[in-house]
Amino acid sequence: GQETVQPGPGIVLLFSFGQEVKEPHVQCVCVCVCVFDVSSGFSFFTKPTSEATYLGKMPAKFGMIAALQGDLDTNDGVGKVYFREDSSPDVLRRAAEHINRAFPEDDEVDPTHAVVITWADVATHEPHTRGDGAPKKRNTFQLVLASLETASYAIVLYARDGIQFTSTPAGDTNAVMHAGFSKGLVRGFLLSRQGPYYRTTTDEEETVRALAEETNSGQRGVWVYEIGTSPYFTNVAPGEVTDLPTEAPAQASGGHEDADARRPVYTDGQVEYPPYQVEAEPIEVHPVQYQPPGIYLMLLFSMFSVFSYNLGTCANNRNKCSQFADCRDYSSGYCCHCRPGFYGNGIQCVAEGKPQRMNGKVHGKVFVGNSPSPVEFSSNDLHSYVVVNDGRSYVAISDIPYTVGPSLQPLTALGGVIGWAFALEQPGFRNGFSIIGGEFTRQAEVTFVPGNEKLTIRQEFKGIDEHDHLAVSTTLEGRVPEVPPGSTVQIDPYSEIYQYSNNLITSSSTRDYVVSLPDGSTDTRTYQWRQTITFQSCQHGEAMRDIKPTQMLSVDQVFAMYDANNELIRFAMSNKIGDVNGEDLELNPCFTGRHGCDTNAVCRPGEGTQFTCQCAAGFNGDGRTCYDIDECRENPQICGPNAICNNQPGTFRCECEDGYQFGGDGQTCVEVNRPVDPCEEGTHTCDIPERAQCSYTGGSSYICSCLPGFIGDGRVCEDIDECQPGRCHQDAVCINTQGSFTCQCRPGYYGDGFSCSSERTKTQCETHRDSLLGVTEFGPRGPRPPVGQYIPTCDENGAYNPMQCHDSTGHCWCVDRNGQEIPGTRSGPGSRPIIKRPQFYSEWTHLLFAQSGRIEHVPLEGYDMKKDGAKAVLHLPEKVIIGVAYDCVEKMVYWTEITSPSISRANIQGGDPTAVIKSDLGSPEGIAIDHLGRTMFWTDSVKDRIEVASLDGSQRRVIVDTDLVNPRAIITDPANGNLYWADWNRDAPKIETSYMDGSNRRVLVKDDLGLPNGLTYDSQSSLLCWADAGTHKMECMNPGRGDRSKVLEGIQYPFGITSFGKNIYYTDWRRDAVVAVDRYAGRESDEFQPQKRTKLYGIATAYSQCPSGQNYCAVNNGGCTHLCLATPTGRSCKCPDNAVGCVE
């Protein structure tokens, strides 16, 4: 009673549940099924009996898998069933993810084949006499049969809004729909008997609705079953993970990832390593592959794409439309339509005339020429920019090695799709985004002739993200012919015809390109190009019916270049979409792109060659010049209560405050119920913070532990007397303090107590003075300077006297702390200059600070924070930014981040972020800039070292790599060639200094420190200041004199610190605020809390003008060939690590 067909290569067919079919030397499990009719919501392996024998009378007498079985109707022109056999790597990978997540204790599997079936918008079969006009309820669900050599699996998906009815007619009554597995009749020796029937629902309708709400695979609505294992292929085993993930997944308690590979995150001010986590990836659907009349099959895969549109009415689905779209009901469902001034598919809408950006990653393997080894792409950055009102697009892909970079130059197709998506539209024609929006799949096949090399380009476009950028993931697989290094590629203008049908767009063409070789010769080459674009459109309205079936994309001004120095490949091209006949009937500047409108404006054609420029939505101006509208400032309540408004060019985004999340409508922020942290609330029983630390462990639990320098159980801690023999220098005395101790040199000795000497180190002024006196002439009355020589005078502490005079000329003038003359203070002979306190001008000076995936700024008015001018200047989603620094010369902000450890920069006046250091980093934290020597310094608390590099990331060198445990804060004093850093090692915290080349390293402070998180240096007062989260103090010292003074006590949990004039500004984790401290008055003067209440990290002052001063590296790189690193009296020429041919 079984029917068989000839299996394809590597495929064994199984037509009876539990029956194995073999070929010689091959043993496989069913991957293809022969199906006669699946309109009832199941697939089967033998020809079924009539519906009357099984509807409402399960189990059936034939073998079947019931995804959701009932009397379903696919004849009304709406409900459809799609199927395909798919063994593509992407589909098999996603099937493996579902299976392995459902069976976490089993060995991981990798399916080799899959059959995919979808029931879309199927309705229950109803009598033809019904005429009440009510819209039909429709169900949508999917099934995948995945197999490998020794096992088969069924994966069933039920969308959350995809089950709208749970019963169907069965004779004169209604029967609850079934889901499960039936073997059918099993033949015995004499009689047949009913085989096993594994049912996943009951006769209660609630169990059918639960299919979309529950799981056995760890993901809502996804159900996984093992339906056969070698050698018997008879069992059905359900998935083992019935727990649903939370809305904001908590960290798992363990993982299998190598601990060295895990990245640190910040918790209580220090670094901890999170366990490995995996997040399920949605699976994209491939729309209709084949739909033969009367014969259907089933499919699974595309977790949400096929279900996210068209079900229900606007009343329940309005939030699925773009905020710039209106929802419209139709008899069979609803559609979203972009409002005037916007374009797209309704789900995604963007403003007319506004430039568009695309960001994403590139993965895959590409072979070059005859090379046996591929070049691998792993998360290479892809960025694109389109000036929509003239159709010009730009694409750049980073980290392209020289072994493949030149050979990718012909492939303008890598970024050509965004040119099509936002092409300049000719009258009556529409570009890609205006038709299908930003969610689609594009697959292109490139065949090079005559070598027949083939390359597959697959791109998943995931829509507009929260930063208004089109997100894309690109995969490259295959081989390209080699283009020799140093060659250039010229691509002539070309045209490509796009053919449009329901949910499918195709195009093909042949393109020539000319390779100019390094020897001056040229080589004309050709490749054939074919692509398909699949998408999900709204089927209810008229929008798709108005699209012309063929349109032509015209591409000219094509530019391709590989930048070997920066390992970048760049493409640029101009794109127009219009008539297939190529008729250029319209010469209006709006259709040629030669109009002169602002890049943020749309060109409106008039009669003949007349036109007007109109600023895009979200911008103001005359169209020739457009300015961004700050919607958040104009309407502070635009996002509603408990929400934060983030202004972005041309638009804005709403985020919920910390402790809130979006509710079911996707717009209202509702409170998140979280357990109370006794450590944060102060309800714990630990000793006082000066002696103990409270560590929250989840729920209502916490741990008390004594701080270093104390002993006890954490609830009661007593001081340890550290003054044991040998603690201090022999010429110093030890003084025990609470939790620590101090060493002080005895009278007549100088030093920090750990090292004491009878001779005091000379200050800068004393060194300057004595160096001049050392070359003086000797006369009858002892040494005297040469005639006309100026000799500086120093005060009792060795500092420059504020007023300096020339003994020979009688002129006097004021100097700064470096001995530099203050302009405008010189007086003539016989008079004295008026000494005034230095004035600080802060126009346009502002503070930069890092917070949860962004860098924000607060302008300063005088020394006061201008809070109403605060806003985010850089959005860096999913990044944990730690350190921030500012280059006052090029107006660039630099930052460190630890999620994917790197150091990056961006122009503060607008520009894309660029990573300058991405390799050999563990946890980069503090960062500092020498604006004179054009270098940057950073600390790494995993590598336990301090490094320096040029500002572009080149010339990299380790300068300190010993005796560091938890280095974090770092600061430069460029004018004096000094470097300062803090190490918050709990066992021995310290603040150290060295010259900028790492020499003359010494400890400045190691007593009475807890967690010195932040450092700042004020060049005007020569004070080094720090904030300590352990002692809860802010202190300062003059590094040259060693004196130490307290600025403020009782601060809570400082992290970063910076200074400007009389104020010190610090970020506080407990207060989620930037706090201003008047260091002269010794009190807090102001506080700024950003709208988004999360932890603040590093902070820096962005000066309107660079601080005064010079060092030896400021001119001509100090005469050095590589790194020039300043010292107090000169400079060191240093070689980068691993440099070849460099001599120091």
From TrEMBL:
Residues 586-627, 628-670, 675-718, 719-755 form the EGF-like domain. Pfam families: cEGF, EGF_3, EGF_CA, FXa_inhibition, G2F, Ldl_recept_b, NIDO, Thyroglobulin_1. One of its GO terms (biological process) is cell-matrix adhesion. The keyword Secreted applies. PROSITE patterns: ASX_HYDROXYL, EGF_2, EGF_3, EGF_CA, LDLRB, NIDO, NIDOGEN_G2, THYROGLOBULIN_1_1. Gene3D superfamilies: Green fluorescent protein, Laminin, Thyroglobulin type-1, TolB, C-terminal domain. Residues 67-230 form the NIDO domain. One of its GO terms (cellular component) is basement membrane. Residues 243-262 are annotated as: Disordered. Residues 354-587 form the Nidogen G2 beta-barrel domain. One of its GO terms (molecular function) is calcium ion binding. Its main location: secreted. Disulfide bonds join C805-C812. Residues 762-840 form the Thyroglobulin type-1 domain. It is found in: Secreted, Extracellular space, Extracellular matrix, Basement membrane. PANTHER family: NIDOGEN-1, VITELLOGENIN RECEPTOR-LIKE PROTEIN-RELATED-RELATED. LDL-receptor class B repeats lie at residues 891-933, 934-976, 977-1021. Keywords: Basement membrane, Calcium, Cell adhesion, Disulfide bond, EGF-like domain, Extracellular matrix, Glycoprotein, Repeat, Secreted, Signal. This is Nidogen 1a.
